[in-house]
Structures are given as structure tokens and as C-alpha cells.
């Protein structure tokens, strides 16, 4: 069979390259040879997938003519078909956070958590409000800035060597990526950074009509992603370990929270010398908790509430990463629900996919895919499309949105622009509004110092990795990261031996999703 011969020749090529000395004029780590390995493997994988699709088509035609034709009679390439085909079907990357606006190369360490029987948890041992002392929280001083450096030559060799072992469409859940591509925060904290403009979030409930409320939600949604990505280079947050949590809050000045349609947002300039939200009596308190509830599949949950405004959001996100040649794609599978108790409205929303492009040179991030926001009670819905850059020409980071009243099939608002730049909104009455995301004031989150955090809270858990990365000590960061991963594997083996499933602290499994144990609508 020709494919088998080609596969054998490609294997010989790889062995010949790997047999070369590690140094000298022609070494096994020569960039051109590593690129040859990666390209040949990707080409062979692509041909294999094409052959499989062709065989499936032939098989279906054969079955149509002869129902007794068995699948064993079809010539096949003895490569792994079913798994990669499933990845292609599931990996359409249709639909953060970020989701996420920063690239969440949410690729999980290769710990084994198979067979995890996560049961609904009906016991509330310690609620977030009881565990987290508000008086301990201080304004966050982390800037989340990442160095805008390209991939260094030695790092490129490592990435090339890794790429040469991957196949197109391959699920990267169990692939451990090199430490130098890590950014200095956990994925759970990245989700908290979606709330960098909590005044816009709280303004949703201030809308006088259902139409105003969903438009305010779309305005908040489109401005939520840019602040999560500090720096242009795509780096990957830490993969949360199972049981990891992140807590924070915001003090939001009450005079900043209002239902605005065509006023205000674009005219407010960011003043770095002015710290918003210090006076408790003039502020709304917005609380946030996130938890990693599952490791395989990797599922993160987060919950955010403001009791005074009688609103909260509950979300669960399963990050599915996929190798795409010179890019890595991450689907954010799951959904969130915004609850406005005062209006008895629930808004269901999804998150876009994220892509790391040009991973061999200067990696950069873009969002892609169509997401939906809908409220069944009011009949309003919105479609938001994140446009990926065309191969030739075209702009980057484009986004368009449309808000519709479904019973009357009326479009009440349209938006276009860049999710990390300027956004223009046009309303049904002809009015327009421009929001420059870079000029929106950022309200810093409040978080307890590491010394007062629990052992499984993100910043304390990853503190040594973060310190090593800040010092540029990649070896030390890798070692600390490896220790955390090994501890996770050991604990999972112990649970497997005792047949005791993992029990999340703040969330319980309900149907296909997860719910916070003590949400605002229960209290």
C-alpha cells in the first residue's frame, strides 16, 4: 500500500535526522531539518485524513448498493483514524476566554484523571463569603504585562522539535508545552480579568427596558476581552490543577453605574493616578470566585455576584486545544448565564475560540467564531462574530454584532470594530456611539496577599513558578511546575485506589453544566 510505504519512508527520515549528532555543522537540532520533520509529519497526517474521508465516502456508496458489505473489506491506512476524525468533527472551533481575549493556550498538563466520577455535591461546607475575609483584600498591584519578545533561537528549536511530533487536528490536552511560553497567571485569574470594567457589567441591570438591557450586555461583552491580553505576544496561562480556586472582588463607584446609550463611555479617559472605588459607602461590591472542577476534561467554573444590584453570572468552560500546523486553536466549550433577579431575566451566552498564530516567530492572538447571547423571557437575542484574519489582506481583530427582537424580527442595534480597539454602535433610532476600549477606565480587582491565601488559591499555589518566570529562570520555573503536576498525579492515584471521586468546593454538577452552590437566586 502506497500510504504504508510513505509512512515507512517518513519514519526512516525521522530516524536518520535523530541519529545525527547533537552538535556540529549538521546536527539533529538543525532548524531546517526540524522544520522538514514537522512539515513531512503534517503532510503525511493530512494525506491520511484525506484517504480516510475518501474511504468513508466509498464505504457509504458501497453500503447503499450492497447492505452486506462489511467495513473490514475496505482498504485502510493503519494510522489512528477514529480519534483524529473525531477531533476534526469536534474541532471546528465554532465557539473565551478567554475565553478569552488573551490566548488561552489552555493545554493541560499530562496528569491522568481518567474515570473521574464527579457527582452532584449537595453539601455546602464553607461558603465563599464565610471563607474570604473582605478586610484582608487589598487593591491588586500586578500589571499582567508580558514582554513583547519573539521566540528566541534556542526556544524555536524546542518548539520545532515539539511540532515534529504532533499531527494536524491532534488534541493537545495531554501535551506538556515548554515553560518559556507561560504567562505569569493562572487561567482562573484570566477569567477574573474579563471583569476589568465592572461598571459596564453592573450597568446592564440599570437598563430601563429589555432592549436597553441586552444592548448594555452586548456593550459589556465586546469590551470584556481586551484587558485580559496584556502585551501582543501570545502566551499561555497556567493550567489550573484540580481543586485550584481564585477569589477577588471589585469596589465599583455607584456614580459610574448607569444605563447609558449614547453618552459617556468613549469620552472617559484612563487616569492611572486615580484609583477608583475606595469609599465603601459609595460603591457596589462585586465578588468573584473560580474553581477548577475537573482535570480530564479540563473544566473551569466561575461565579460573580453583586447583591445590591441583584445580579450574578455563573459559567463553566471546557478548554479544547487543537494543533493546526503553524497555529494552535482553543475552543471554549460551555456557556454562561447572567441572572438579573430584579427583572426575572436570564441571558445565556457562549464564548469565542482563541488562536495562537505564527508560533515559530512572534506568536500573536486572535479570536474567532460566532457566539450567541439570548434571553428567552424577553425574546431578545444577539449574535457576535469574531472574524479571523484572511490569508491575504484584511484586518485583524475584527468583530461584528447584531441585536434582534425575535418576535418582531426587528434589528435594534448593530456594532462593528475591533475587540481590542474602537467599537461603533448604531441603534434603531439612528443614533450612534463609539467606545474606545483602550480609553475605558480600568477598576483594579481587590485580592488578599499571598500570605493570607489558602494553599490551593491560584497565586499562592503558583507563586514559585511566577517568581522564577519574573527572574527569567526558566529551569527553576519548569521544576516548580513539574512538582505541582506530580503532586496532582499522586493525589489522583490515591483517589483512584480508594475509589473516592473528587468533590469540588464551590460548584456542583447539574446536567451538562456546573452551578455555584450558593447562588444569589437561592438566597
Automatic annotation (TrEMBL):
Keywords: Lipid transport, Lipid-binding, Phosphoprotein, Transport. InterPro entries: OSBP_sf, Oxysterol-bd, Oxysterol-bd_CS. GO terms for cellular component: cytosol; membrane. It comes from the Eukaryota. Coiled coil: none annotated. PROSITE patterns: OSBP. GO terms for molecular function: cholesterol binding. Gene3D superfamilies: 1.10.287.2720, 2.40.160.120, 3.30.70.3490. Pfam families: Oxysterol_BP (PF01237). GO terms for biological process: lipid transport. Belongs to the OSBP family. PANTHER family: OXYSTEROL-BINDING PROTEIN-RELATED, OXYSTEROL-BINDING PROTEIN-RELATED PROTEIN 10. This is Oxysterol-binding protein. The lineage of its organism: Eukaryota, Metazoa, Chordata, Craniata, Vertebrata.
Amino acid at each position: 500500500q502506497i500510504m504504508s510505504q510513505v509512512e515507512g519512508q517518513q519514519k526512516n527520515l525521522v530516524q536518520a535526522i535523530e541519529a545525527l549528532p547533537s552538535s556540529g555543522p549538521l546536527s539533529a537540532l538543525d532548524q531546517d531539518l526540524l522544520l522538514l520533520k514537522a512539515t513531512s509529519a503534517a503532510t503525511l497526517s493530512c494525506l491520511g485524513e484525506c484517504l480516510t474521508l475518501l474511504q468513508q465516502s466509498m464505504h457509504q456508496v458501497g453500503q447503499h448498493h450492497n447492505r452486506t458489505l462489511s467495513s473490514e473489506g475496505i482498504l485502510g491506512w493503519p494510522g489512528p483514524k477514529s480519534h483524529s476524525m473525531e477531533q476534526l468533527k469536534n474541532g471546528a472551533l465554532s465557539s473565551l476566554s478567554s475565553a478569552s481575549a488573551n490566548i488561552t493556550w489552555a493545554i493541560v498538563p499530562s496528569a491522568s484523571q481518567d474515570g473521574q466520577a464527579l457527582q452532584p455535591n449537595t453539601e455546602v461546607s464553607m461558603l465563599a463569603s464565610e471563607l474570604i475575609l473582605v478586610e484582608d483584600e487589598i487593591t491588586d498591584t500586578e500589571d499582567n504585562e508580558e514582554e513583547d519578545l519573539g521566540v528566541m533561537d534556542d526556544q524555536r528549536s524546542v518548539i520545532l522539535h515539539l511540532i515534529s511530533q504532533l499531527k494536524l487536528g491532534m488534541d493537545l490536552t495531554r501535551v506538556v508545552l515548554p515553560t518559556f511560553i507561560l504567562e505569569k497567571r493562572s487561567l482562573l485569574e484570566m477569567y477574573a480579568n474579563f471583569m476589568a470594567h465592572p461598571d459596564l457589567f453592573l450597568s446592564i441591570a440599570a437598563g430601563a427596558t429589555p432592549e436597553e438591557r441586552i444592548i448594555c450586555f452586548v456593550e459589556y461583552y465586546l469590551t470584556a476581552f481586551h484587558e485580559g491580553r496584556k502585551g501582543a505576544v501570545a502566551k499561555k496561562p497556567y493550567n489550573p490543577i484540580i481543586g485550584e480556586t481564585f477569589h477577588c472582588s471589585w469596589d465599583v463607584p455607584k456614580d459610574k453605574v448607569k444605563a447609558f446609550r449614547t453618552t459617556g463611555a468613549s469620552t472617559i479617559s484612563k487616569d492611572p493616578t486615580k484609583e477608583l472605588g475606595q469609599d465603601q459607602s459609595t460603591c457596589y461590591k462585586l465578588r468573584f470566585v473560580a474553581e477548577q472542577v475537573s482535570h480530564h476534561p479540563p473544566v473551569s467554573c466561575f461565579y460573580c455576584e453583586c447583591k445590591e444590584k441583584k445580579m450574578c453570572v455563573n459559567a463553566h468552560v471546557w478548554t479544547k486545544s487543537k494543533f493546526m500546523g503553524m497555529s494552535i486553536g482553543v475552543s471554549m466549550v460551555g456557556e454562561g448565564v447572567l441572572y438579573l433577579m430584579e427583572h426575572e431575566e436570564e441571558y445565556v451566552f457562549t464564548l469565542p475560540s482563541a488562536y495562537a498564530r505564527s508560533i515559530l516567530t512572534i506568536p500573536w492572538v486572535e479570536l474567532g467564531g460566532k457566539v450567541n447571547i439570548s434571553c428567552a423571557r424577553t425574546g431578545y437575542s444577539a449574535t457576535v462574530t469574531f472574524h479571523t484574519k484572511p490569508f491575504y489582506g484584511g484586518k485583524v481583530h475584527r468583530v461584528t454584532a447584531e441585536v434582534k427582537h425575535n418576535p418582531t424580527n426587528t434589528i435594534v442595534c448593530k456594532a462593528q470594530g475591533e475587540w481590542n480597539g474602537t467599537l461603533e454602535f448604531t441603534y434603531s433610532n439612528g443614533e450612534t456611539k463609539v467606545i474606545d476600549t483602550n480609553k475605558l477606565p480600568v477598576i483594579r480587582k481587590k485580592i488578599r496577599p499571598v500570605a493570607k491565601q489558602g494553599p490551593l488559591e491560584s497565586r499562592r499555589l503558583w507563586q514559585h513558578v511566577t517568581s522564577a518566570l519574573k527572574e527569567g529562570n526558566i529551569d527553576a520555573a519548569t521544576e516548580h511546575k513539574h512538582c505541582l503536576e506530580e503532586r496532582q498525579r499522586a493525589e489522583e492515584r490515591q483517589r483512584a485506589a480508594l475509589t473516592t471521586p473528587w468533590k469540588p468546593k464551590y460548584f456542583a454538577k447539574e446536567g451538562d453544566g456546573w452551578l455555584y452552590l450558593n447562588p444569589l437566586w437561592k438566597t
